[in-house]
Amino acid sequence: MKKLFIINALILTSTMACAQPEMDCDLYPDQQSSPYLLPYQVGEAFPVVVSTGHYRASNQGVGLYAIDFDMPIGTKIVASRAGEVVAVRETFHDGNGKDLEENYVFIRHSDGTIARYFHLTHNGALVNEGDKVKAGDLIAISGDTGQTLSQHLHFDVQQCGPNLPPGYNKLPCGQTIPVTFKNTSSHSCGLEEGVSYKAL
């Protein structure tokens, strides 16, 4: 009986160590007044495969508000918010499976935050550094570059930047912020993992 108790305690301790932090819904901005659109074209819908799973206790919550959208290679990606393109990389090939070798587009908004669009396909950037874009403008084609388990678009908004490799996620700029998207169904506490969201 004592041995069984110790095993159960170890399992519980291990589970608690890996548990995701509870989300504070009050941190999410009002959806109706959000400046963000879903990062894909109107009429399309994609499921969220990871919403808070990027969190690591060891890195002070960097990546906490990152979102992964499950989508096939070749999906058209749009700017989620107006801004200026501040970083582009499109040299890597799909399926390379290497950490820090993903293609991306970074866009800086008027408040200094940076939207990051990761895992784009080879030559999949449709904008250049210095370009000004409006929310909804076509900016890239999705892919499967970098260290991924499946093809998807990784989207997040950092509080400043751009953070370029190899220091993508260093604080303070690496801290992601909670966002809501005004052109989809209600999500007052952020997008839910396993739910498909249609861009309206």
Automatic annotation (TrEMBL):
* Cross-referenced Gene3D superfamilies: Glucose Permease (Domain IIA) (2.70.70.10)
Q: Where are the transmembrane segments?
A: none
> Molecular function (GO) terms listed?
hydrolase activity
**Pfam families on file:** Peptidase_M23
Swiss-Prot/TrEMBL keywords:
Hydrolase, Signal
Q: Does the keyword Transit peptide apply?
A: no
- Kindly give the InterPro entries that the UniProt entry links to this protein: Cell_wall_metabolism_enzyme, Dup_hybrid_motif, M23ase_b-sheet_dom
User: What residues does the M23ase beta-sheet core domain cover?
Assistant: 66-161
Endpoints of the signal sequence? 1-19
Name this protein carries in UniProt: Murein DD-endopeptidase MepM/ murein hydrolase activator NlpD
This chain's source organism reads: Rheinheimera soli
